[in-house]
């Protein structure tokens, strides 16, 4: 399945363990030596992903199937870059605060690129690089954050089940039902829980 994330020779989704450096959040933050993580390992954390065709997303049958199967009735498109996002620096800083949501976070990269960071079962940061064509779903209750990379631009489709609720709950919020359900399903189960298979 990992080959599905190759676009020619370029991967549209890659993941690795992060270093502990306080340098610019937009840098890759690889460990030395680099420590990559498979898409299968991400699935064990409840994170699923697809490679889709961003150049024809309006007519993409695969995207339509995913939306129908997972109930993603809401859709909008947002540009995150200095020219188009009001209060850009403050917004980017708030996106990078560690938080969770009580619903899934679904992002489909139509142009540009960015990083989604999520915690593994041992609370270590995993950096997930998403490029044009990559779609990622972070499960409700997982602690995560987002930042642009040094290109400072992403155009992303946001999907949601029903009316969107974008409320972030900054860590710690371990008392929320969504957090408890996440821990029960993906962390406390030694096998990683029943991660949903990507198409």
Provide keyphrases for this structure:
199 residues; alpha+beta; Jelly Rolls; 9-stranded antiparallel β-sheet; disordered C terminus; EC 1.13.11.54; oxidoreductase; metal-binding; EC 1.13.11.53; methionine biosynthesis
Question: If you had to describe this structure to a student in words, what would you say it looks like?
Answer:
The protein is α+β, with helices and mostly antiparallel strands. Helix content is 18%, strand content 33%. The strands form three sheets. Strands 3, 4, 5, 6, 8, 9, 10, 11 and 12 form a nine-stranded antiparallel sheet that branches. The radius of gyration is 16 Å and the shape is globular. Its main location: membrane. InterPro entries: ARD, ARD_euk, RmlC-like_jellyroll, RmlC_Cupin_sf. Fe(2+) binds at residues 99, 101, 105, 144.
CATH topology: Jelly Rolls
Largest sheet: 9 strands, antiparallel
> Helicity range of the residues?
10-25%
Radius of gyration based on Cα positions: 16 Å
- Total number of helical segments? 4
Regarding CATH, which class? Answer: Mainly Beta
Write the CATH architecture name. Answer: Sandwich
Helix and strand run? EEEEHEHEHEEEEEEEH
Q: How many beta-strand runs? A: 13
* Residue windows where pLDDT falls under 50 for at least 5 positions: 1-9, 190-199
What is the first-to-last residue Cα distance? 9 Å
